[in-house]
Amino acid sequence: MYLQLAWRNVWRNPRRTIVILVAVIIGLWSMILLGALMRGIAVGMVKNGIITLTGHIQIHHKGYRIDPSIENSMTDSRVVEKALLEKLRPGANWVRRVRVNAIANNARHSNGVTLVGIEPQAEANVSFIGSAVFKGRYLRPKDENGILVGEALLKKFETKIGRKLVLMAQNTKQEIASRAFRIVGVFRSEMESTEKQFVFVTRSASQKMLKMGESISEISILLPEGADIDDLTKSLKSTLPTDQFEIHDWRDLLPFQTAYLRILDGFMWFWFLVVFVAMGFGIVNTTLMAVFERMREFGLMKALGMKPWWILRAVLVESFVLLVCGMIIGNSLGFLSIYALSGNGIDLSALAAGAEYAGMTRIIYPAAALKDVMVANLTVLLLGLLVSLYPAIKASRFTPVQALTHI
C-alpha cells in the first residue's frame, strides 16, 4: 500500500518530480562515468608502465637501483635462473636484459638514450616492443648490427630505416665504447617520451660492445593475470641471497603510479561527496516544498488517527521511489556512456605533453569497477534517504490545528 500511494503521490506534481529525477540522474551518471575514467587512467598508467620494460617483478644486482651503472651488473645469473624455473608457474615469462645509459648520434644530431640489449624472441612475450614495430622489421636473434628506434627519435634525428646510428657508452673497463648500428625497424609506444628514450639492440651485441661477457643488468618477469605478485616476490627474496640480489615488484619500480593508486580511492570518495551535496540540496528543497504544500493533507491524516511514524514512513517511501527511479536511469546512462567510450576511448594526443608529464597514456579507456558503482549507488540511496528525513519529520509533526490554519 505504501509503495502504491508513494507512486501516485510522486506524480501528482510531474514538474517537481522531474526536477528531482534530473538531479539524481545527473549526479549518479557523473559519479559512475568519472569513476570509470579515473579507474581507466589508473589502469592505463599501470599497464603501460608494466609493459614498458618494467614487468611485474625485476631482479637486479644489489645496489643497481641506487646506481644503475655497468659496474652493478649481474655477473652470474644462473642462481636466479634456477630459482625462476622452480618458482614460476606456467604462463609466466621472464627475460634477461642489458640496460645502460648511452649517447646516440648521427651526422646531424646527438641525444642521450637508454641502450637496451634484449633477447628478441623472449622479449616479445614480456614487453611492448614485440608488437610495437610498425615500420621495417623486428630484431632477429643474430642481428648483431641492427637497432630499433622510436618514431619520435627517428624524426628528431631526421633519419630513416637503413641508415646508421652511432651509440656511445662506458664499458666495463671504464672506457668509452662506440659502435655503429643500422636502423632496421621503428616502434611506436603509448608515450612519446618512451620513443625518445629507448633504443633496442640484441643482448649479445650490447655485451660485445660493452665488453660485459655474459653479465646482464636485470631480469624482468611478467606474470599471468591473477597471479599472486606479493607471494612470488616474498618467495624469491627468501630464496636468493640478499647480499647479491635485489627483488622489486612493479609498485617499487613505478612510484608515481603507485602513489596515484593510493590517492584514487580517497579522491573518489571526495568527488562522490561533492556531487551528492549539490544533489542533496535539490532533494531537500523540493521535498520540503512538497511537504508544506500537502500540510492540510497531513493534518487531515492526523485528525483521522494516523500515527506520526506512518506519515514519516510514507514520505520516506516517496523519496525512496524517486531515488530508485533516478538510480535506474542514472546507471543506464552511465553504462551507456562507458560503452560508447570503450571503443575509441578519449584521445589526448592534442595534450600529449601535459598528459605524459602526469604519466597518463595518450588514449584513456574507461574501466568500470564494481566497487565504485556500488559505492556511488549506496551513496545516493542512503544519503538521499538521510536528507529526506528532515522533510519527513517535518510532515509527521504537523498538527490538525496547524493544518486547518494553513492556507
Mean pLDDT: 84
Specify the overall morphology: elongated
- Measured by DSSP, the beta-strand proportion falls in 15-25%
Q: What percent of residues adopt helix (DSSP H or I)?
A: 40-55%
Low-confidence stretches are: none
Order of helices and strands: HHEHEEHEEHEEHEHEHEHHHHEHEHH
- The radius of gyration is 31 Å
SS-based class: alpha+beta
Oligomer state of the chains in this structure? single chain
- Through-space gap between termini: 29 Å
Main-sheet strand order equals: 2-3-8-5-7-6
Per DSSP, the total helix count is 15
Q: Tell how many strands the DSSP assignment holds.
A: 12
Explained architecture:
By secondary structure, this protein is of the alpha+beta class. Helices cover 54% and strands 18% of the residues. It has 15 helices and twelve strands. The chain is elongated and about 100 Å long. The model has no long low-confidence stretch (mean pLDDT 84).
Short description:
By secondary structure, the protein is α+β, with helices and mostly antiparallel strands. The protein contains 15 helices and twelve strands.
Keywords:
six-stranded mixed beta barrel; elongated; 15 helices; two-stranded antiparallel sheet; alpha+beta
